[in-house]
Structure prediction request, 392 residues.
Amino acid sequence: MNELDHLSQVSCANCGTAMQGEFCHHCGQSIHSVLKPVHHMVEDTMDMVLHVDGRIVHTLPPLLVKPGFLTLEYFSGRRMRYIAPFRLMFVLALLAFFVCHLALDGDDVPRDAVVLSTPFDQAGSAQEVQQLLDRRVAAIGAQRQKAGSNAVALAALGAQEARVRTEAADRLAELAHEGKQATASTGTTHSHVNLVRADGATSFFSGEWDAKAHPVQIGWLPGFVNRRLTAALEHMHANVAALADDGEASLATRERLVGQLFSSLPQVLFLMLPLFALLLKVLYVFRRRLYMEHLIVALHSHAFLFLALLLAVLLALLEGWLATIATCAAGPVHLLEWALAIWVPIYLLLMQKRIYRQGWPMTIVKYLVVGWCYLWLLTFALVLSAALTLSH
Prediction:
């Protein structure tokens, strides 16, 4: 078998045209052979999906500090030095949501931050359970004051407090089931149960709804769509009922739903891109730009947002870590977080001004309109993501 991975091959193996480089100018086939070792195939696959090469050095810095630069370069035809817009946004979105998921995961909460960690299983009465609960909640409150405005640390401590209250409720249920509480203290026990459980936490699916007895029947929809809607509502009913309960089942359901939410968010946000590009097309209809140009603007702007989100989460994690070992070093990191938060809206405004080249008054008006509409689109995307998560 003749090898096709040498430039000495004078003719294209596909169409027979004389080769003038590594690709045939007639049919486009590469001169390189597809018969390669497995490790070369793995390298080619990783390069195709992530494309992490020298171009990332020329792409990320201007994406972060030069509003509109990559988009204008792309429009000018200078594209080889930079990562393609869709691939750039796709990789940054995956990284951002992955890091957010890790940061907000309840298992990553610094449990050693709580001063008193006596297991509730050692409590022999409801009063002891409540005393331990009060002290642990107070310790978490002290950690909240140290965390300041660190959103990631506050969310993690909130998840930890919810888990502590769930453990206390489980221990109270065990004590009641084992009959270790005296009849005289039964009323007090119920009051303690109300303290550790959320008051009035009821599901909007609560009732005797049954998917088989009351399936979804919408006349103008096909039968398979009605069946899918019925199954989705049944899953929502089960998930919401599991979340309303206490114990390990509720915690496991919450962790599963959070994982599914972060898995569905990128897909839903990708669906927003064509709508966002259409919005730009409508607002700049007299600029006579193609829809594809607006789509590239949307890709680069979302890539910047995902990069900013990734940096914000990493800075928040760094601040939380520095706060435990060197409080003075956490201050500059907190300033960087504020600088990044201020830079995001300024960046998007400058990007819109440099790309569409309109006057400042018209640019600001359209910027506000785009921001208002995008806020509603984002709300719709989050609601849709939550609904898809609960329906699985």
